[in-house]
Structures are given as C-alpha cells and as structure tokens.
Inverse folding.
C-alpha cells in the first residue's frame, strides 16, 4: 500500500485502537456495507480508514458454559449458521440479502447503530453487553448504553470514549447462553431483502423464569417493555411451560403500550407507517413472538 | 441441446439452417446478444471508454421551486482538471426541449421548478475533479413555496392559482361525451382513487459518450428509446443541423418509458463541443430517479350506474394526472387515460373528463402502459364494487358487459377486432388455483391471521401511436456475403433495442423472408431513417413491418436478377414471385425447370451491384379527438385478463402475492420465449406498483430516490405466472402480430387490488397498497378526496 | 485538504493488477470499472441493493459496491469471467442463454455469479431457497420467471453431470475391484 497512510490494516485490537486514537476523525471499517455506499453518496473522506478485516481476534465466536461471545468481525452469514444460538441466527437471517449478510459484521451493526437494525434489536432482547477498547483500556458495558451513546443515524465514525483515549472500538458482543427459546420477527415492505420497518426480538430464559423483549424501529434505541415481560413471566407456568390462551395477546398490548410511551420516538418518515400502526404492529409481533417461544418450549397457548 | 457457443459480439448472426438459435418467425430463436450479455462483455452506454475522455457531472436544484438569483461558475472553472462549466447562458440554440411541448429548459436560468432540475454541468479529467467542480459552482437560490397539490390547478375546470409557468399550467384537458349525459341506472357506485408515482427503475442508469467531430458536429453513443427524436431536440438546442448530430445506440439496460425524454443528451454533447474532447456522462441511481420523468400519479373519481340486472348504463369519470414541472408526454398520456377510462365494456352513456397539469412535483411522462394502468385501476375497482352492490358475481357482471368488436366505445370509435376478451376471462377463471396456504406448526398464530383472496381484472390497451400522429418506421435489408463467403441478410434499423428483443425478432423476420439462415442486425444509428419510438408496444408491428417489407423487396430484386440470369422473359423479372420462389436454400422456377442454390444466386446477383431495399412502414391513419372527445383515435387494442391470488396477514396488513394467471390477446407469436419473458416482466411491474413501489414526494422533494427507499420486487416477491396466449392474427399487421409488452402491466395491478379487497373485505383506494390501509380504523388513511363525498352505494336514484 | 490517493495490488480473476492513485474511499466496483476497465461488474444502484455488481471475494458472494477497494487488496476477486471452470458456471451460462432469461441483460453477470455461488454451495436448493437466496439480485425486465427456469435447468444439468461421474466412478471402482 503506498501513497499516504490514509488506510491501515492492523492485525491486533491494540494496533487498531492505537491507529484510531492517533488520527482524529479516523474511522473503523468492518464489512463496508454501510460505510462504502455512504462515501459514494457523498460522505466526506476521513483522514484515516482502519480496516479490521485482518484483526483475527475479531473473527472469533464461541460458547462458554453460560455465555456466547461473538467477535465484532463475525458476519451475519456466520451467525445465521450458528446452531448454538438459534434466536440470534434467526435475526441474522432476517438481514438484507445473501451478499449483505456475507459482508456485514456485528461490529458494523453496532457502529452504525441503526434504530431499526434487526440484529441489534435481538441483541438488546438477549441482554447483550459489548466488549470495547480504546487507546487506553478495555471494558464491558451493556449494548443499550453503547447504542444510546452513538445515537441514531450518526456519521460513520467510531464514537468518542473518555477524552484523549480515542474512539471506541467494539471488539465483541457477549450474551447469555440461551436457556430457552429465542425468536426474531421482522416486519418489512417486501418478502425478502427488506429494509426493516419494525422488529421484535424475544428471549425466554426457562431456567430463571424470565421473558425479555425488545422492539426496534420505534425509538432511537430498541424498546424493552419490562412491565410486559414481568406480566408474561408471571403468567407462565414454568413447570411446563404453559400460559393462559389470551396471554400472548395481552402481552402484545402491554408491549404496544410501552412502545407508545417510549422516550425518543422516531419521527414518521414521509410516506412511512403512521405511529398508531407501528404500535399496533409491535403488539402483534410481540404476541406472536411469545407464542412462538412457548410453542417451541413445549407448551402451546 | 445444440450447444451453440456464442460469438460474444453484439448482433452477431448464427449460422446453420434449422438450429434452435437461428429460427424464423414463430420459433424460440435465441437472442443474438445473449452470450455477450451473460459474459458481461456487452457494451452498455455506461461501459463505453475512450482514451482522453473527460468525465461530466450535472448540478441539480435541491429545491422544488426557487428563483435563481445568481449562478457563478468562476471558482469552479478555475479548479485544476476542470475543462468546462456550462449553464443556460452557454446553450447555443433553443433553450428548451420537449417531446410534445418544448418547455423543459436545458438548464434552469431564472427559476427552478422541480427537485433535481439541472442548473449547470461540468467536464473534468475525472469524477473526483468533476464533483469538486460541482461543489464549487456558486448558485444563489431563493426558495419559493412549491405548488404540489394538482387540485389547485384543476378540479374539473382550471382554477386560479399562483402560476408555476407563464405558459400556463394545464398541459391538456379532455372531455368525452358519449350518449345521454343525464342517463343513469337505478344502482350506482362511486369511488375515489389515489395512485402514487411509479418509477421505471430500469437497471442501467443513464449514460452517454459524446465525441466532437471535425465538421463541427458531434457523435454520441447513448442509451435511449428513440434516436431520431433525441437528435431532433439535440440539434435544436445545440444550434446544429441534424446531419451534424450523429447518434448511435449503445447497449441499453432497460427503459420502460423512462428513456423517452431527453435527459443527458444535450448536456453531454454541449460539453464535448465546448471542450473539443470526448466527454462521458453517467448518472448514479439517485440522479437517475431525479433525472427522468415517472409514471403520473393520479386522482380518479368514478361513478358507475347500472340496471338491477347488471347492465352498465353510465360511467362518469374524472381523472387528474399530475404532470409535474414540465410537459414531457403528459398530453398523450392523458388521451390514453381518458379514452380507456371506462374500460373494455359496453357503456351506452359516458362522461369522461380528464386533465393533466403542471405542479412543482417531479415531471411525469411515459411508463409502460402510458395512462392506461391508471384507468384500469379505476374501472376494475368500480366493477367489483358494483357487482357487490348488485349481489352479482364479479365475473358475471363483466361477462354481461364485455365489449366486442364493432361495439361503440365512448370516443365513438368502433372497437376493432380481433378482441378475444371473453375468451381471456374464461381462461383465467378456469385456471387451477394454488393449494391453500400451509406452514409449519409454529406458525400457528400467523396462519390464523392469513386470509386468502382471489381477484380478477380485465384491461384493454391501445397499440401503436394514436390520435392522428403520423407514425412510421424505416428499415433496410442488404443481402451480402458474410466473412465465410456464405450469403447473409443484414438488417439496418434505428429501432432501439432496450431488452425487449427486437434484435431477435428482426433476425427472425429476415430469415423468414430471405430463406437465409444467417441474418444479422447492425447497431442502430441515425444513418438510416427513423424507426420511431420503442414504446406503445409498437416495434414488432411497425419496425417488424419495415424489416419485412424491406426484406421482401430485396428478395424481389434478387429474384429479378436471378430470372434475368436464367434467361427468363422480362415480364418474369418484373413480377418474379409469379414464377420463382425460395425453397430449402434454393431459388426454384418450376415452370422453367430451373433451380439455383441460394448462395450462388446471391453471389451472382451481387456481381450486378449491391442488393438492398429500404422500406418505410406506416399503420392506418387515426384521428385526433374532437371537442366532444370523439374520434377514431386508436389503431388497435390488445385484451388481457389477470387473476391474482394473495395471502394477507390481516393483523399486520402484509400482502404476499401467491399466484398470478394471465390470458392475453397476443396476435401471431413471433418468438414464444420472448413473449413469455415480456408478459412475465410486465406482470411483475404491475405487481410492484400494487404492493410496494411508490416514489414518495414531500412538499415537492423526492424522499426515496434510491433502491433502499424505493423497493422493487425481488425473486421472493414475484410468483410464477400461469400464462395462456390467445393467438388470433391481427389484420394489417405483419404476420398478424400484436404488441404484447404493456397490456399485462395494465391488468396486473387491479387484479392484485381486487384480490386484497377480497381477502380483507374492505374497499381500497390507494395504490400502492400500504399495510396500514388494511389494518385498523379507516382514519389512518390520509386525505385523498378529489372532490365530493366518499364512496357510497345508492339505490333508486331519481 | 487534499484527498488521499492510494496505490495497491488487486487480484481479479487470477490476474494481479497495480491500482494507481485511486481515491481512498473508492469502492471495489468503482476501481474495477474506472481504473481497470472491468465493466462486467455493473453499477445499477451502488448501494448493495441490486446485486448487479455481485462478485466473489475470497470465494464469498458480496456486492463490489460495498467493499472498499483498498480493503480488497489482499483478497482474490472473482467476476463472471473468472468463475471456476470445474463448477456449475458453464451450465448456468448456457441455461441463461437457452431459457430466455436475458432481456436487457444488465442484471445477468451479477446473476451468473450469484447463481453459480448458490448452486456450488447448495446444488439441490429448492424453489424457496432459490428465491430467498437470490433476493439480493434484482431483475426489472423478466419478472424472474425465465431466470428460475434457467436455474432449474442448470441445477438439473449439474445433477446429471454428478450422477454421470458417480456412475463412472462406480464402474471404475467395480472394475478395480475385480
């Protein structure tokens, strides 16, 4: 590579973090599915692009006794084929087309922090944390905090960490190993390769007796509806598991109410779905997601 | 499998009689450009490269309406690598152009009237420098309030409004008065329909390469639908005689009406002439979606009345087509929409009014169907609702009212035959339905929410140009010796191949008429006369007719020369087909006991000089509409019937099109494989408009000019098409052909609308259908009335 | 600020090119078309939404317009011209020509790459998998009907070929065993 150091290809996380810190305005490049079209559409050239393709640590994914860890460089296609995480796989399969899934990465999804991102919605439902690094240190924080720090539709640059330490590089996502079914349901405007309009991720932890839901596409960050989740957990007979037949519908209504009350709601795009429709649809998806999970766990509503 | 390996050249002919790739009319001859397209070597306009070519870019208005206070190009011109920056001041000839009314500025001068209107253009050494130059052009805009509601311009009559253009804002107005305007039946159904903008979305964005010539003219290779129309407008704007503007058709990646208008032609040629260098101009997708006219959005207001037995008594309709900022082909689109507004039915009394108006919305013009898709949505939705009001089966109501050849249409024109609409209806009605929806057990909840709906739609679509337009096509056929020494038929035509398969058809016709197995179609250019537009489903009929005529006459000449060489009497040479024929590769004269191998006959005939004939083909004359909307306005019509089956998730309002069936009046089939491809493609475009395609415009600004925001049907969205062609030869057409490309687009959309209505049990008034149209309270739907009350069903009207 | 330009090698269809002075942010699509003159890769949307620029990157199907060209510098890029000869590519090309799957043809090279990739990985893909697997390749002309017919024909040709090889292998094994 010659002609100026506007492009570097580190091989370790430490090198990548240092490179991002060394040049203000530097951006990290994952699969490129958001960044490269943005450049074509007129986004200004950054002073430095730090390509992560060669950082092997980011490509690792694995399962421990109670956690799944997914490196930021893992692609949607790799997740879609991962038998250890069926709900995560379902969310990954919902993204884009084969071409996009083959290139887009988990880290890229978090960096772009689209409020409608399919994978992000599921990861929020799954209670994921991110592992992050900057020029000074490494740490772990909840994914929702990282998404809130980024904000919707941010420019394609890594967000700032504490002053002077350089931009934050997400290195991996950590989520509890599934202790029950997980599902992701997507609402899009065509049968496949559809930009997400609304998504609902739902995870059931049969061991702990908990339900966790997230709805993407309605607010700046996926909405979690804890009251609805508590209601569902109370209704479920965990020994079977089983629920009264109207529970999914009532659960859905509570989720819709949480969506209606969410802070930072997204504005209705021109020609886009009116807020009452989105609320209603969120409730429908949530109810179906719960019904799916319970059916999978052995009891049917 | 014959295992032909393609030569990979554009237009290269196949050799060898009888091989599947090389058949005559009526066979599934393979495209001559297929192998190159598959290999990626076929040169589309955007692939053309010339050493030393500059790269051009266009500066476009971000505002839908604004005064231009200042355009200062000095800083842009001073940038390194910038060869020229041009604006309205640099246009040497006519300042405006247009297909019908030359009202569209080459560059906006004092005012911009739509989002994306060109203001300046640059040529530079590369794309980076060109974009930097655009950014350096200093334009001072003073935005003004855009006029975006077409009803402010016309609501049955022109209205007082702040003018968008000093020449006036009504592009066209038509009033068709048929029968007794006061006649009405006891049962009535009214409805108002709002149709959004569809974009042609051809995959290859606009592109051209212009090379200045030593004679002061310019040679341009480009993708377009009508070379000679482009040339005429370019010459006028460049201040050049037409002979100095020479156009060659480069590879075209789809069109569907979106390349009928001039878009980049004058810009690229002007820059080439200014810089003295070759100039390349290519649009990206966003620029393409801003840069060409779209399908007209429309507001339709209908009232149908009938007897209690279901005989139509009257149709009253008002159609308002928003033509956007400039005229494009709006007046002609309006003629189509209004003359088809009542549909292919016997309508004894009709009052059909329509207008197309100027606003600050995006300009609209030609798209596959050309006004008829809009009308078909209206008349088919009305008939379904009328059937329900009468308690009649939807198909039975149609059966009782189908138009037949000889019936008088609202324009006073007698419907010409053949017109197998009844047959088409019965065919689709009888086609097997798909199996009921099924899914895995976990999808129980979703399965409960799915309702299946079945819908039908009939449509008729005019073919060829109309209303007195003197349309014609020119072609020449040469008989030559090919590189292998064997005779070959060379077809010259300016007909634009845009993917529809004219190059294949032309070769088939040449082979059929000459008996030669080798036929080649040369690249289209302006060195021969006009072939007319690739639109209006006209090329197979018109340019096919020209090729056929030219081929027949060159064969006449060949036979004449052969007759003389055989020593036959002079009278035979004057009418050679009385005694000579081409059979199985030979010229035979049975009465004279003579036979000559065709290749020898051609070789010997060529010794006397070139074998070439040119033909100009015309269709029968038509008439414009008079003040009452009467006239013999359309040459012919094709009939189509679609059935759609949809599954609707009624809780979410999501539509899945499960199956489509089509029966279509196609005339003599030239190429069955190409026919299938065209009707499948036309159906898919109708499907797209029904359920997902809308160019969203907010206060005049296009919101979604990308493939992320404007959704096209994918492989997963378009089901197989169950297609039955009805082949009745069309009189006055070569071989009895009919145009096939547009009719299915007209019937597909209303069939899907009907199926969704059947599934959800609610009337639908917006195209495309949105999920929230199907779910929840009706007041989720925004205001849509043109005028007057919403739908009602009344009985016993006075 | 002067925009950064880069020079780097790029290996396309087995040939290593020297890309000179390409803009930092140029996509692989732009560099292929503008710097290397490889125009078989098409620019219908440049946003990853149409598949007309589908290529293989180290054997994986991607859209060239979403890959930073500099980032592809140490990868193998395969276009329609470089698809492996010992796979389904030939059958796919023949089938597209024979089935009437090409009209304007602008989607064709991208489809050939994507279909070849699909049939290589999933030779017995059913209709549902074909439709969703290829949802990233848009065609505006055909309505996909003749393309589906071409894919079925190519898949069947591949199955026949494999069956032939298996049969030949069995015969050979049978002979060897004697």
């Amino acid at each position: 590579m010659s002609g100026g150091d506007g492009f570097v290809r580190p091989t370790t996380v430490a090198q990548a973090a240092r490179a991002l810190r060394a040049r203000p305005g530097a951006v990290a490049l994952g699969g490129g599915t958001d960044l490269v079209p943005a450049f074509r559409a007129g986004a200004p050239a950054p002073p430095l692009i730090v390509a992560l393709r060669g950082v092997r640590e980011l490509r690792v994914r694995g399962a421990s006794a109670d956690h799944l860890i997914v490196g930021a460089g893992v692609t949607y296609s790799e997740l879609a084929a991962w038998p250890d995480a069926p709900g995560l796989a379902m969310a990954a399969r919902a993204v884009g087309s084969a071409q996009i899934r083959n290139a887009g990465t988990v880290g890229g999804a978090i960096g772009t922090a689209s409020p409608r991102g399919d994978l992000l919605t599921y990861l929020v439902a799954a209670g994921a944390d991110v592992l992050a690094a900057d020029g000074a240190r490494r740490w772990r924080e909840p994914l929702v905090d990282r998404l809130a720090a980024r904000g919707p539709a941010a420019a394609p640059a890594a967000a700032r960490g504490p002053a002077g330490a350089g931009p934050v590089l997400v290195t991996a996502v950590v989520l509890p190993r599934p202790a029950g079914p997980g599902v992701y349901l997507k609402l899009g405007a065509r049968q496949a390769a559809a930009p997400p309009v609304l998504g609902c991720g739902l995870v059931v932890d049969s061991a702990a007796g908990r339900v966790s839901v997230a709805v993407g596409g309605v607010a700046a960050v996926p909405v979690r509806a804890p009251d609805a989740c508590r209601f569902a957990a109370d209704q479920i007979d965990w020994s079977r598991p089983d629920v009264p037949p109207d529970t999914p519908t009532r659960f859905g209504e509570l989720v819709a109410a949480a969506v209606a009350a969410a802070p930072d709601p997204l504005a209705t795009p021109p020609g886009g779905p009116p807020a009452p429709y989105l609320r209603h649809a969120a409730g429908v998806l949530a109810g179906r997601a719960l019904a799916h999970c319970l059916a999978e766990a052995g009891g049917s509503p | 499998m014959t295992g032909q390996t393609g030569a990979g050249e554009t237009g290269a002919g196949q050799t060898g009689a009888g091989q599947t790739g090389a058949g005559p009319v009526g066979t599934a001859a393979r495209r001559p450009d297929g192998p190159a397209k598959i290999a990626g070597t076929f040169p589309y306009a955007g692939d053309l490269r010339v050493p030393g070519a500059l790269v051009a870019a266009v500066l476009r208005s971000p505002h839908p309406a604004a005064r231009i206070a200042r355009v200062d190009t000095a800083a842009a011109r001073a940038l390194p690598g910038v060869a020229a920056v041009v604006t309205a001041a640099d246009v040497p000839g006519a300042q405006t152009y247009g297909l019908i009314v030359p009202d569209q500025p080459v560059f906006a001068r004092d005012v911009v009237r739509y989002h994306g209107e060109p203001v300046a253009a640059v040529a530079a050494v590369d794309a980076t420098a060109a974009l930097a130059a655009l950014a350096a052009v200093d334009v001072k805009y003073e935005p003004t309030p855009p006029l975006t509601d077409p009803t402010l311009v016309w609501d049955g009559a022109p209205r007082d409004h702040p003018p968008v253009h000093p020449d006036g804002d009504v592009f066209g107005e038509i009033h068709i008065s048929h029968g007794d305007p006061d006649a009405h039946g006891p049962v009535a159904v009214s409805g108002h329909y709002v149709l959004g903008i569809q974009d042609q979305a051809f995959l290859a964005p606009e592109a051209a390469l212009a090379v200045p010539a030593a004679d002061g003219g310019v040679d341009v290779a480009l993708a377009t639908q009508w070379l000679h129309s482009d040339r005429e407008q370019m010459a006028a704007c460049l201040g050049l005689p037409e002979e100095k503007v020479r156009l060659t058709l480069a590879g075209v990646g789809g069109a569907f009406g979106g390349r009928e208008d001039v878009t980049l032609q004058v810009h690229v040629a002007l820059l080439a002439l200014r810089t003295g260098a070759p100039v390349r101009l290519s649009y990206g997708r966003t620029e393409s979606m801003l840069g060409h006219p779209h399908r007209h959005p429309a507001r339709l207001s209908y009232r149908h009345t009938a007897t209690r037995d279901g005989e139509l008594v009257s149709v009253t309709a008002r159609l308002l087509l928003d033509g956007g900022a400039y005229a494009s082909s709006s007046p002609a689109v309006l003629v189509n929409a209004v003359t088809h507004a009542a549909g292919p039915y016997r309508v004894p009394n009709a009052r059909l009014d329509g207008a197309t108006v100027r606003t600050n919305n995006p300009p609209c013009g030609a798209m596959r169907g050309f006004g008829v898709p809009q009308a078909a949505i209206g008349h088919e939705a009305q008939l379904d609702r009328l059937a329900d009001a009468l308690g009649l089966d939807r198909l039975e109501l149609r059966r009782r009212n189908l138009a037949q050849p000889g019936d008088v249409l609202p324009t006073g024109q007698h419907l010409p035959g053949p017109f197998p609409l009844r047959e088409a209806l019965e065919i689709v009605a009888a086609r097997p339905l798909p199996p009921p929806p099924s899914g895995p057990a976990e999808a129980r909840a979703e399965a409960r929410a799915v309702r299946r709906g079945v819908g039908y739609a009939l449509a008729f679509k005019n073919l060829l140009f109309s209303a007195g337009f003197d349309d014609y096509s020119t072609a020449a056929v040469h008989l030559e010796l090919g590189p292998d020494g064997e005779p070959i038929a060379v077809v010259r035509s300016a007909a634009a191949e845009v993917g529809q398969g004219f190059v294949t058809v032309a070769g088939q016709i040449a082979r059929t008429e000459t008996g030669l197995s080798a036929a080649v179609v040369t690249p289209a250019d302006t060195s021969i006369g006009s072939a007319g537009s690739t639109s209006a489903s006209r090329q197979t009929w018109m340019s096919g007719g020209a090729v056929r005529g030219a081929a027949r006459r060159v064969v006449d000449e060949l036979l004449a020369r052969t007759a003389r060489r055989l020593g036959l009497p002079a009278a035979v040479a004057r009418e050679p087909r009385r005694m000579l024929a081409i059979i199985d590769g030979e010229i035979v004269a049975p009465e004279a006991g003579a036979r000559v191998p065709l290749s020898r006959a051609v070789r010997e005939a060529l010794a006397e000089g070139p074998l070439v004939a040119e033909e100009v083909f015309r269709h029968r004359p038509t008439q414009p509409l008079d003040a009452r909307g009467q006239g013999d306005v359309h040459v012919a019509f094709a009939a189509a019937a679609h059935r759609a089956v949809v599954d609707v998730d009624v809780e979410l309002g999501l539509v899945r099109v499960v199956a489509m069936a089509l029966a279509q009046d196609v005339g003599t089939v030239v190429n069955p494989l190409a026919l299938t491809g065209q009707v499948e493609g036309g159906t898919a475009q109708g499907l797209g408009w029904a359920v997902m395609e809308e160019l969203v415009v907010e206060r005049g600004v296009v919101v979604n000019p990308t493939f992320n925001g404007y959704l096209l049907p994918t492989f997963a969205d378009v089901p197989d098409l169950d297609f039955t062609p009805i082949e009745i030869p069309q009189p006055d057409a070569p071989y009895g052909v009919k145009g096939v490309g547009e009719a299915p687009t007209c019937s597909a959309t209303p069939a899907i609308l009907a199926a969704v209505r059947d599934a959800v049990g609610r009337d639908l008034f917006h195209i495309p259908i949105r999920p929230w149209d199907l779910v929840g309270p009706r007041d989720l739907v925004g205001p849509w009335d043109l005028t007057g009350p919403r739908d009602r069903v009344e009985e016993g009207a006075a | 600020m002067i925009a950064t330009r880069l020079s780097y090698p790029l290996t396309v269809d087995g040939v290593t090119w020297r890309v000179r002075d390409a803009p930092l942010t140029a996509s692989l699509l732009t560099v292929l078309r503008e710097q290397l003159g490889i125009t078989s890769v098409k620019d219908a949307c440049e946003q990853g939404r149409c598949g007309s620029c589908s290529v293989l990157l180290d054997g994986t199907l991607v859209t060239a317009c979403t890959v930073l060209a500099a980032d592809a510098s140490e990868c193998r890029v395969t276009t329609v011209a470089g698809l492996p000869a010992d796979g389904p590519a030939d059958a796919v090309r023949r089938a597209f020509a024979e089935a009437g799957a090409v009209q304007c043809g602008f989607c064709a090279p991208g489809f050939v790459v994507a279909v070849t990739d699909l049939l290589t990985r999933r030779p017995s893909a059913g209709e549902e998998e074909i439709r969703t697997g290829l949802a990233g390749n848009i065609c505006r002309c055909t309505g996909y009907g003749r393309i589906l017919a071409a894919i079925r024909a190519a898949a069947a040709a591949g199955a026949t070929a494999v069956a032939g090889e298996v049969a030949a292998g069995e015969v050979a094994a049978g002979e060897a065993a004697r």
